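Incident log, support desk, overnight shift.

02:14 A customer reports that sequence design results differ from what the structure should imply. Their input is reproduced verbatim below. On-call engineer (initials T.W.) acknowledged and began investigating.
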């Protein structure tokens, strides 16, 4: 057909093409709304019973969720800023779960009626960016004014109090309203909407999306969460994904490592939700949206119409326009009366992070919130890593001095060592029992070859031995900055298995 010929009936008209284009955009938009809702399920910490999308709202504080903002005083709140902020809470709650479900999800422990996970999701005013900031559950903050009722270390009192405590206990002390008010007070960010979710819903979400791809450079095992994962790349089903995002006793340990794993899964779900496989099938997208919507309890202001409008406004969002971060931590074992071990925020960096969020700026690329310029961030203090450099030659002496300048505990060289370097690359040998500390030394000597050795028994040498070679002798500057290793602001495409961010490396 020539360019000037009239189209036949088998070809869509211009108006038909426009409708198809609008339909395609709507499918992408709806998929992206699913991605936002997936953020809610990805970080879930509760184990409340899952219900169908058309079932009654589940018990256990549903009314408190719906009416959460009715109990938030209008005065004293942060000013409204550009964009939309949604506070996501995953509750550690087990009422209503059958024994079979508890066994399947590996959640047989005691509940604390607290928020196991808190996430602030910021949707930019121009709808071209989504930023997710994880708030560690053990963060030590001052609670907003409230009356304690005997839960979560609180004492029954008729007076209002603003005591300090772990942020995850705000829910036990005062439900969603106190959680919202405390987060607003700690961050300076006004919360526009609130949602709660659960692990069974997350399990269904991942299964609905045909799994979530994760990658690990080492085998992972956590008896508490039931996780057992071999080294390599895997597509996890819903049950496996629940265990993966719950794991806290794998390397890196604790809440920051777990949050990064959750963010990794969320980034992969976002890729799936915006892929042609799903976005090209509107019915499947609608079913997925309904399934996700059925596992989340919202405040009454976040209506379905509001979600659909946000979805339409978000069309065209790409993974590199999503951002993930965790509140910077200064003290990872801040001991306080009653509460025990807590996390102390890095005040200046946390304030800078939330200032960017309030001002609707990107949270990546700010030198204040990132690692110290010119140095590689490491998760363990160099002072806690003991090193011995073999040899007595000039190269060995230089390496030893450079490591000392970086803060490493360097032992004197043993007598009788070789005077000069060996041929080939510098090697670092160490007891594999100290694998977690190895990354600190390998970052300081990126050209060296790491040689872990498995040692039987309970006697483990804490000394890392450096054998200088003719290559890989340079020592780079490092700085102890665990937050930047495990929770620095990154883009969504940096978190996928093809990205640059290493997952689960000590």
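02:41 Re-run completed on a clean worker. Output:
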């Amino acid at each position: 057909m020539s360019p000037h010929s009239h189209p036949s009936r088998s070809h869509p008209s211009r108006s038909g093409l426009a409708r198809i284009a609008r339909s395609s955009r709507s499918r992408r938009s709806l998929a992206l709304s699913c991605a936002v809702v997936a953020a809610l399920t990805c970080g879930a910490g509760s184990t409340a019973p899952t219900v169908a999308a058309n079932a009654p709202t589940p018990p256990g504080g549903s009314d408190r969720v719906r009416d959460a903002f009715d109990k938030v005083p209008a005065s004293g709140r942060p000013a409204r800023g550009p964009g939309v902020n949604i506070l996501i809470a995953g509750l550690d709650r087990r009422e209503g779960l059958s024994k079979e479900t508890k066994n399947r999800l590996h959640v047989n422990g005691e509940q604390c009626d607290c928020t196991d996970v808190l996430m602030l999701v910021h949707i930019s005013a121009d709808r071209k960016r989504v930023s997710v900031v994880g708030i560690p559950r053990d963060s030590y903050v001052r609670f907003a004014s409230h009356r304690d009722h005997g839960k979560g270390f609180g004492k029954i009192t008729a007076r209002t109090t603003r005591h300090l405590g772990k942020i995850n206990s705000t829910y036990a002390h005062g439900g969603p309203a106190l959680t919202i008010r405390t987060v607003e007070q700690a961050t300076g960010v006004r919360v526009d909407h609130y949602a709660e979710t659960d692990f069974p819903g997350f399990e269904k979400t991942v299964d609905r999306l045909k799994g979530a791809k994760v990658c690990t450079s080492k085998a992972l095992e956590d008896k508490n969460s039931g996780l057992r994962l071999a080294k390599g790349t895997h597509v996890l089903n819903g049950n496996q994904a629940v265990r993966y995002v719950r794991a806290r006793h794998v390397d890196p340990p604790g809440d920051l490592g777990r949050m990064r794993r959750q963010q990794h899964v969320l980034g992969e779900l976002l890729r799936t939700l915006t892929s042609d496989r799903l976005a090209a099938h509107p019915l499947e997208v609608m079913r997925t949206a309904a399934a996700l919507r059925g596992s989340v309890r919202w405040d009454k202001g976040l209506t379905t119409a509001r979600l659909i409008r946000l979805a339409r406004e978000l069309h065209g969002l790409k993974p590199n326009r999503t951002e993930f971060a965790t509140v910077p931590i200064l003290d990872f074992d801040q001991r306080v009366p009653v509460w025990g071990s807590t996390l102390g925020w890095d005040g200046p960096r946390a304030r800078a992070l939330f200032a960017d969020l309030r001002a609707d700026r990107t949270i990546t690329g700010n030198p204040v919130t990132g690692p110290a310029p010119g140095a590689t961030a490491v998760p363990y203090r160099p002072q806690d890593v003991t090193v011995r450099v073999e040899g007595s030659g000039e190269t060995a002496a230089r390496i030893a001095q450079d490591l000392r300048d970086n803060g490493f505990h360097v032992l004197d060289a043993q007598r009788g060592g070789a005077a000069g370097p060996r041929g080939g690359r510098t090697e670092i040998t160490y007891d594999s029992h100290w694998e977690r500390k190895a990354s600190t030394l390998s970052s300081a000597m990126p050209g060296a070859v790491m040689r872990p050795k498995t040692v039987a028994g309970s006697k483990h040498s804490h000394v890392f031995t450096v054998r200088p070679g003719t290559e890989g002798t340079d020592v780079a500057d490092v700085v102890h900055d665990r937050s930047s290793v495990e929770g620095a602001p990154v883009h969504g495409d940096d978190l996928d298995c093809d990205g640059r961010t290493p997952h689960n490396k000590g």
